[in-house]
Amino acid sequence: MTDRFxxxxxxxxxxxxxLDSPHNRNAISSRLxxxxxxxxxxxxxxxxxxxxxxxxxxxxxxxxxxxxxASGASGVVDASPAELAAERTRQMVKLxxxxxxxxxxxxxxVDGHVRAGGMGLVGACDVVVAGPDSTFALxxxxxxxxASIISLTVIPRLTARAAGRYFLTxxxxxxxxxxxxxxxxxxxxDSEDTVRELVSALRKCSPLxxxxxxxxxxxxxxxxxxxxxxxxxxxxAALFGSADAVEGITAFMQKRPPxxxxxx
Length: 264
Prior knowledge:
The chain is an alpha/beta fold. The chain has helices spanning 30-45, 67-70, 81-101, 117-124, 151-154, 160-169, 175-180, 191-202, 207-240, 243-253; strands spanning 6-11, 14-19, 51-56, 60-62, 106-110, 113-115, 127-130, 135-137, 186-187. The chain has a single domain (6-190), classed as Alpha-Beta Complex (2-enoyl-CoA Hydratase, Chain A, domain 1), CATH 3.90.226.
């Protein structure tokens, strides 16, 4: 482990951004967002990088929002809960858009658990390869929240029925189901080999051809950022301050059921 939350390496025409914050399961903290944004900017400007791979250390790709920041428990920032929620929302919109707008293909290599905001990162990537130990869940409703911002990148990937189920239930599902519903590109036994083959194929493409081809696949998603981004950001910030979310996040951190949960 380094003292960085996101490591940047370039080899064989590929920039690899590795989420390396295992102490909080690569949760989306302010620091991780800042370092990931910098890594994306570095990759965009790096002529030696034809493509970008987003991957992780540890058994979790990304656990979603850093709930210690969300609850104010970290004590790092001297701000009100509303200000913290609004700032986190702005950061997440900026991060997801940076992945979608990057003029180079972004491949996610997932070999672990993906939850909540981590699903937004997966949805923003152009190609997603997941190994057999991967699991996925949109857990926001179980915390008194909703997958507001990440809906911009996740809903376009899913079938309508899958979105209706998993956004509401928060159920966990595996890589083969994720492939079947469109969240990931391929469920494989060896994600490293598969990603290596994809990177090799992309090296045969021109930088301009890749950039313009990516625009064709992302322009409608970006239109949704423009159309719905502010409304969803406001919803997300408001939900973090709601009584349900305060109870849900507190219960999660205390490892107990929230008071509003019904046994059954």
